[in-house]
Amino acid sequence: MDGKKVLVADDEAFAQNLLKMLYGALKVECVVVSNGKEALEAYQKSPNFAHVLMDIHMPVMDGYDSTKQIRAHEKAKGLPKCKILGLSGDGDPKTKAACLTAGMDDLLVKPIKKEQLAQYL
Questions:
Q1: What is the number of H-type helices and E-type strands within the chain?
Q2: Against a cut of 0.85, is the pTM above it?
């Protein structure tokens, strides 16, 4: 999977390091940011990600708002829709519905396994 790049937005250092390790094992470059605002800015600068892994609960801007703004940016610029995966410790169906309503493509529930990430590359 060399040459692929993903954007990870998570405010927890432990989760960031774990995800870098998992993507590294898949030979995927991982750009890590700490909140939804930074995710939006990173995507606007370089929308060439295989997918965005977006924690839904972060400071400054949460994953829901960041996703909505990424989708608006894609529409305004005529960009193809990037796969955005919500990330949460909460697997409740209402959480997944909220993710889909915000424009995410799916919800992954922590703890994450390498195989789950690989299926979206």
A1: 5, 5
A2: yes
